[in-house]
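Methods — Computational structure assignment.
A single polypeptide chain was analysed. Its primary sequence is given first, followed by the predicted tertiary structure written as structure tokens.
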Amino acid sequence: MTNSDRSPAGGVERPTVVGPDGEKALVVIPTFNERENLPLIIGRLQTTLSAIHVLVVDDSSPDGTGEVADELAAGDAAGRIHVLHRADKDGLGKAYLAGFDWGLTRDYEVVIEMDADGSHAPEQLPALLATINDGADLVIGSRYVRGGELVNWPRRREILSRGANTYARVALGAGIHDITAGYRAYRRAVLEKISLDTVESAGYCFQIDLAWRSIQAGFDVREVPITFTEREIGQSKMSGGVMSEAFVKVFRWGVQSRLAQLGVRR
């Protein structure tokens, strides 16, 4: 890959943001009780993109995940595995925000969200990064666009997920099919602009919140199809409270957006 990509439409050269082996990109992986999954997912990442950097954000996992992460970092001669220990378990959103803050104080150009449980295939990350290099500001790995797939997911979870995405798309008027998805890549400019210090959402709502802020700020948000595979080890951490938070906040954001379009001050 050269230092720039040429747009087939207009012949305009775009600077390459991420190198072919993942240079200038950071994958943030929040963990809580993922000691068995973590070495597997990091190994797959390094096989797929040899120069990618990884930040494990561990919320004091009682199963020793933090210690496993430290061992992986200590054994990484290239210094591409990093660990951030947090004292409390206060939600996926807060863990990601801590990871974003860590990444933005360094020279990464792209920051990636990825689950530790294997549901997000590292082998599909090059497709997200290629779309960033094509000019996108936020790329979402989508289960619900053409080419996206679900593997071994309970029917009840799928119905809830599809319903949540349809509700968010209609309530917000956003043309994103999988706005709750947690496999995504951000250019640093997006994270620097969307006021991360004001984000209080968690879980599903966190993902909707950041995508909606990105759209409202005028960034180029795209989806690429992925295959989402249900975890084989451990248990899902999704809760009813997280779903309720998403329902209420999305409704409020949708109302605020429509009032703003009508010129009504809030």
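Note: The chain is about 40% helix and 20% strand.
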